[in-house]
Specification:
mainly alpha
Length: 262
C-alpha cells in the first residue's frame, strides 16, 4: 500500500496467499495464546513463551497492513477477558500486545499508523464495505431468488456448474460471503444465512459460559470467540468459507459441541 507521502509499504503475507489471510491467522493465534495465559496452573516459562507468541502474532498483524485483523485482535482480547471469571488477570495481556503493535508501527516508519488510522475515517470504512455491498445489492435485483449454486464462481459448486453448462455458463464473479450467497441463492439464501449465524452465535455463548470454569476453557473460549469474530469480517470478506481460517473456524466450532447443552 502507499502512504500519503507516496512511499510504498509491502504487506507481508508469509507462506499464505494474501496478507489479509496471514493477518487473520495471526489474530486467531494471539487469541488462543492470550486465552491460555488467563488460565491457572501454568508456570513462568510457559507464560513467557505464550507472551512471546502473542506479541509476535500482534507484530505480524501490523506488518500485514490488515485493518480487519487488527480489529480482531482487539475484540479477541475483550472476549477472552469477558468470559472467564477473574478477568483482571488479563490486564497485562493488552499491554504486551499494544507494545507489539507499537513496534510494528515503528518498523514500518509510521506507514502502518497511517493505514490503521483510516479505521477512524467513517467515509473510508463505509467505502470499503460498499465495495462488497454494492455489487451484492445489484445482484439481488438481477437474481432475486438466486441464479443457481455455482454462478458466483466460487468453491466446489462452481466446478460442477462450469462442467454442466460448459461454454454456456454465465459467471457473476463477486467478492465476499454475502455477495456470493445472493448471486447463488438470492434473498432466501440470505435469510437462511442470518438464521444460521444467529443460531451459531447463540450456541457459542451457551457453550463458552458452560465451559469457562472447566479445563477446556483455554480452548473453548477462543474457539467460540472465533465464530463470533467472523461477524466482523462478513461485510467485507469470507470468514466462514475462506481457507484456512474458515476451515479452522468450523473445526473448532464442532469441537465445542460436546460441552454444549444436553
Amino acid at each position: 500500500y502507499a502512504t500519503s507521502a507516496g512511499r510504498a509499504e509491502v504487506r507481508r503475507f508469509s507462506t499464505l496467499v494474501a496478507s489479509a489471510v496471514f493477518g487473520a491467522i495471526m489474530s486467531i493465534s494471539s487469541l488462543f495464546a492470550v486465552s491460555r495465559l488467563g488460565m491457572a496452573g501454568i508456570g513462568w516459562f510457559q507464560r513467557l513463551v505464550l507472551f512471546t507468541c502473542a506479541a509476535l502474532c500482534a507484530y505480524a498483524v501490523v506488518l500485514t497492513g490488515s485493518r480487519t485483523s487488527l480489529i480482531l485482535v482487539g475484540l479477541g482480547l475483550i472476549i477472552t477477558a469477558a468470559f472467564p471469571k477473574g478477568a483482571l488477570r488479563h490486564f497485562i495481556s493488552p499491554l504486551i500486545l499494544l507494545g507489539a503493535v507499537y513496534l510494528g508501527i515503528k518498523g514500518t516508519s509510521g506507514a502502518a499508523a497511517e493505514r490503521f488510522g483510516s479505521l477512524l475515517d467513517a467515509d473510508a470504512v463505509i467505502g470499503r464495505v460498499m465495495i462488497v455491498i454494492s455489487p451484492m445489492l445489484d445482484a439481488r435485483l438481477t437474481y432475486p431468488i438466486g441464479g443457481g449454486i455455482g454462478r458466483a464462481g466460487h468453491g466446489v459448486p462452481f466446478v460442477f456448474y462450469q462442467a454442466l453448462f460448459e461454454s454456456n455458463a454465465v459467471i457473476r464473479s463477486i467478492d465476499g460471503d454475502l455477495g456470493r450467497l445472493v448471486v447463488d441463492m438470492g434473498f432466501v439464501g440470505l435469510v437462511i444465512y442470518v438464521v444460521l449465524l444467529y443460531s451459531g452465535v447463540s450456541d457459542c455463548i451457551k457453550w463458552m459460559l458452560r465451559l469457562r470454569e472447566s479445563n477446556l476453557a483455554a480452548i473453548a473460549i477462543p474457539a467460540g470467540g472465533l465464530f463470533m469474530l467472523g461477524l466482523v469480517q462478513v461485510p467485507t470478506g469470507s470468514p466462514y468459507i475462506g481457507i484456512p481460517a474458515g476451515m479452522l473456524l468450523w473445526i473448532l466450532f464442532g469441537g465445542l459441541q460436546p460441552g454444549g447443552p444436553k
